[in-house]
Automatic annotation (TrEMBL):
The keyword Transferase applies. Coiled coil: none annotated. It holds the Pfam family Acetyltransf_1. InterPro entries: Acyl_CoA_acyltransferase, Bact_Acetyltransf, GNAT_dom. Gene3D superfamilies: 3.40.630.30. This is N-acetyltransferase domain-containing protein. It comes from Saccharopolyspora thermophila.
């Protein structure tokens, strides 16, 4: 997205080439007894992964691909803002909204692919308020469960930082939740924990997590 006041520099972002407009193929995100379930794609943990790519022209099937990826991560216990008991439509609505924001330059999307399957994504929003136009938010970062632990999360992160630099942003922030060690992942990449809201994230009845706020300079 190109939010109000964001100034995009002419320099290219080498870590983040533009995405070719090709038709992706996706697995199936289904609803089973009120909970998310996934018919897994043929993802090879040792296979070739392309990207990170910056998405400039979203493919018509991108929203479904995002919902599928978020579903796989959620079912595996990952933290992408959803619960395994969420209806499938909730993921699709969020994915559709993100794609619309990308299309209208209100958000910037970075992706990873394997054999035309979406296996990783990160989303950046530059803020629009005049007093906050030098800041942005890392809204999402997700890697397919079968490809985690291989450095792809760091590559997505670094591509987001490069995109933030290209937009002229100076500071970034994000929120995540406790219980996954994500605060260690981010602090190892230069983020600083600024605060916690105990019990703000309810993953399931009786399973409350802290919301963690982190920031970093670009």
């Amino acid at each position: 997205m190109l939010p109000v006041g964001a100034r995009e520099r002419k320099a290219a972002v080498p870590q983040c080439p533009r995405e070719h407009v090709t038709k992706p193929s996706f697995g199936s995100l289904i609803e089973f007894k009120g909970a998310l379930s996934i018919v897994a794609d043929d993802i090879d943990p040792a296979g070739f992964v392309t990207g990170p790519h910056r998405v400039d022209t979203p493919h018509p099937d991108l929203a479904q691909a995002l919902a599928d990826l978020w579903g796989r991560v959620t079912v595996a216990g990952g933290a992408v803002g959803f619960s395994p008991t969420d209806p499938v439509d909730r993921l699709r609505e969020a994915a559709t909204a993100l794609v619309e924001d990308v299309r209208h330059r209100r958000a910037h999307l970075i992706t990873l692919g394997q054999q035309h399957v979406l296996v990783g994504m990160a989303a950046l929003r530059a803020r629009q308020l005049p007093v906050r136009q030098h800041t942005g938010e890392l809204v999402w970062l997700a890697v397919d469960p079968q490809l985690q632990g291989k450095g792809w999360g760091k590559q997505l992160h670094d591509a987001v930082v490069a995109q933030a630099q290209a937009l002229g942003l100076e500071k970034l922030d994000l929120v995540t939740r406790s219980g996954h060690g994500l605060e260690r992942f981010y602090t190892n990449l230069g983020w600083v924990e600024r605060g916690r809201w105990p019990g703000a994230v309810r993953v399931a009845p009786g399973d409350d997590r802290d919301e963690i706020w982190l920031t970093r300079d670009v």
